[in-house]
Write a structure and sequence with these properties.
Blueprint (H helix, E strand, L loop, with lengths): L7 H13 L5 H4 L2 H7 L2 H5 L3 E3 L5 E3 L9 E2 H10 L6 E5 H21 L9 E3 L6 H11 L5 E4 L2 H10 L6 E4 L5 H9 L6 E6 L2 H14 L5 E4 L24 H13 L6 E5 L9 H20 L6 E3 L23 H19 L5 E3 L3 H5 L3 E11 L15 H12 L5 H20 L5 H22 L12 H4 L2 E5 L3 H4 L1 H6 L5 E3 L9 E6 L8 E2 L2 E3 L2 E3 L2 E3 L9 E5 L5 H4 L10 E7 L5 E7 L4 H7 L4 H18 L4 H15 L8
Parallel strand pairs: 4-22, 5-6, 6-7, 7-8, 8-9, 9-10, 10-11, 11-12, 14-16
Antiparallel strand pairs: 1-2, 2-3, 4-13, 13-14, 13-21, 15-21, 16-17, 16-20, 18-19, 22-23
Length: 657
């Protein structure tokens, strides 16, 4: 379905309204600066994303250190390499830059406050377990002593195999059984520094037992349930009802058990986590202040305290508002580092305690910016916006009334005539239901009604304040843009927890986006849609889009999707992983395609649910032979069916448009 063009009357009225205000037409005044403001790209995108003079999104993988890539040109180039959309593009240089910025912020804070300790961050593997991402992070992290955090047994196996530098820090979180404990403790023999964080009371006894069996001195930590509360969706990650961690009585009991086992010297780390995406710096300050006191008290109890792990929570500004809104943050990375360093130093100085090595698990802030998801629009639908021509025969009265209403709408009477249009439309439906109006006449009535609503909406958009009865008109008239994507596979947090990501066209940004629309994916599920978008004042239900021209590509990008989305995606309607490429800037000013990871084929996703492609093909062959014998199909048709079926099994799960 394709969005219909506005009627001549509709266009003329719009121009008259513009002339009445003695202003140039909107499209004549549109600039890339207006697109930057509309899509808030300077707020969430700097220093990595911008718009060039051609109206296309650019990517600067090294931030403000130079080098930019035209994203539209990159997508076209990748398509020439037979990489179909949807397409996930990872920029390795952004990953490196994010890691360097985090370490630089802590280095600056340590120098500013004359902190006598150091910072050694870790990347939580759960944020993005993809091999090429983890390999890059480990490689980029070597100069900074950056390590990994594992939250499960499989992630522990990944981390142990990926870490290579001697003394690599490995934080071992999550539920632990004997196998987990043994593997983590034996990793000391490889030259790593694995710290087993005790998060459940029973893990204390298990750690003591395993350490004695292996004859090792374990390096242990405890995770504390802080009273300081998080904010937003993950606010319950802390407090008395937190899923993980020990309360203070349990921590004191753990200390005494370790003392009794002569292993208190192995207790070296305090860990806490107050939630992901902490939007307010006040919450972080409160948590650090409480954790600092717990740390020094553990040292006073005789524990060999060396590390303070502040967990995750460093937020990403998804909407660019720089506020405490849940999809934003009211602080920057330097503020975050400053407050952690200052609060911990103050707590330790007051009690005469040596300061710890500071550890953070800032996965979202490191990984989000590196990945951009590109998808194309495959069609649109909308309410009619043109008026049917006058018929030769006499029209029904209700149709004449609707036509008169449409022709009479202006800036003075639009409110009154809107109510008239609603009344006449309802009358037409009632007449149809009782058999007094044909289906063709009812269709004409609805067409005139929707054209009237669009005419009124153009007037409402010029008002300084929208009357109550028109607040939903924009949403009612919004188009549906059908996109070549599965939200459940590529952006599951949008569906599951109402996460907001920046979405915008990656080209035509020097043109006025004249349409408003929601985005519907390929799945046969009413939840498979984007109808919440970032806005200046929070969230808006529609996205400003350009008219989709059939036969021309229209590419949209979803940004900041590098954390969590890939691994949490599901196979709703059997749409699999997307094609993925890794792009890196070259010294010559261009870019190189480092890695290509082909997306799932249909036979691959079918195998996840225990179907064998060859077996399915054989079943179709047998059915074709039976149809041949019965005379229901010709042999050429049977061969064409088999060929199409086999080709389908080997092809990408998404549309080829």
């Amino acid at each position: 379905m394709v969005l219909a063009s506005p009627s001549p009357d509709f266009q003329a009225d719009a121009k008259q309204n513009a002339d009445r205000n003695d202003q140039p037409a909107e499209s004549e005044r549109w600039t890339i600066e207006r697109s930057e403001d509309l899509y808030r790209i300077r707020g969430w995108g700097e220093p990595y994303f911008g718009i060039n003079a051609a109206g296309r999104v650019t990517v600067s993988p090294k931030g403000d250190r130079g080098g930019a890539i035209d994203l539209y040109e990159l997508v076209e180039s990748l398509k020439q390499r037979n990489l179909g959309l949807p397409l996930l593009i990872r920029f390795s240089d952004i990953l490196e830059d994010r890691l360097e910025r985090l370490n630089a912020c802590f280095a600056k804070a340590i120098a500013r406050y004359s902190y006598p300790g150091q910072y050694r961050g870790v990347f939580p593997v759960k944020c993005n377990q993809q091999r090429h991402v983890v390999e890059d992070l480990v490689r980029f992290g070597v100069p900074h002593g950056f390590g990994l955090e594992a939250g499960s047994k499989p992630e522990l196996l990944i981390a142990l195999a990926m870490l290579e530098a001697p003394g690599s820090l490995l934080i071992c979180n999550g539920y632990k059984d004997r196998g987990y404990m043994e593997t983590a403790m034996l990793a000391q023999k490889l030259g790593h520094l694995p710290i087993v964080v005790l998060e459940q009371p029973e893990e204390v006894d298990l750690a003591i037992e395993v350490a004695r069996k292996l004859g090792v001195t374990p390096c242990l930590g405890v995770r504390s349930k802080l009273c300081a509360k998080g904010v937003g969706r993950w606010g319950t990650s802390s407090g008395d009802r937190a899923k993980f961690g020990l309360n203070l009585p349990e921590i004191v009991e753990a200390v005494e058990k370790l003392r009794g086992a002569d292993m208190l010297g192995g207790l070296q780390l305090l860990h806490f986590h107050i939630g992901s995406q902490i939007s307010s710096i006040v919450t972080i300050k409160d948590a650090i202040r409480e954790a600092g006191q717990i740390y020094v008290e553990l040292a006073k109890l005789g524990a060999n305290m060396q590390f303070l792990d502040v967990g995750g929570g460093l937020a990403v500004d998804y909407d660019g508002s720089k506020t405490s809104f849940y999809a934003s943050k009211n602080y920057n990375m330097q503020n975050y580092a400053n407050d952690i360093v200052a609060e911990v130093k103050e707590a330790c100085e007051e009690k005469g305690c040596a300061v710890p090595t500071l550890v953070s698990e800032s996965g979202r802030a490191i990984a989000s910016h590196q990945s951009v998801l590109i998808f194309d629009v495959v069609g649109t639908s909308s309410q009619p916006n043109s008026v049917p021509v006058l018929p030769t025969e006499k029209e029904h009265l209700v149709l004449r009334n609707l036509r008169e209403t449409y022709n009479s709408i202006d800036a003075e009477n639009f409110q009154e005539l809107y109510h008239d249009a609603v009344q006449f439309k309802d009358e037409a439906i009632s007449l149809f239901n009782f058999g007094y109006l044909s289906i063709t006449e009812r269709a004409k009535a609805e067409q005139i009604y929707w054209a009237s609503c669009r005419k009124i909406l153009e007037i409402v958009r010029t008002l300084p304040e929208v009357p109550t009865e028109f607040e939903d008109l924009e949403q009612i008239l919004a188009s549906i843009y059908y996109i070549n994507l599965s939200i459940f596979q590529s952006a599951p947090d949008c569906w599951a927890i109402d996460q907001l990501f920046p979405i915008l066209p990656i080209h035509r940004l020097n043109e006025e986006p004249t349409e408003r629309g929601t985005l519907a994916d390929l799945t046969c599920d009413s939840d498979g849609k984007f109808d919440r978008f970032i806005d200046r004042l929070g969230v808006k239900p529609n996205l400003e889009l350009h008219c989709h021209n059939p036969g021309e590509p229209y590419y949209l990008g979803m940004f900041l999707v590098g954390a969590y989305q890939e691994i949490m995606g599901n196979l709703h309607n059997m749409f699999g992983d997307t094609n993925t490429v890794h792009v890196q800037l070259t010294n010559q000013g261009g870019y190189a395609i480092e890695h290509v990871v082909k997306g799932d084929t249909m036979d691959a996703v079918l195998s996840y649910v225990q179907y064998d492609g060859d077996d399915l093909l054989e079943r179709i062959r047998q059915a074709s032979e039976a149809a041949l014998r019965a005379g229901r199909i010709e042999i050429e048709e049977a061969q064409r069916l088999l060929g199409a079926y086999e080709e389908g099994l080997r092809s990408y799960t998404y549309l080829n448009v």
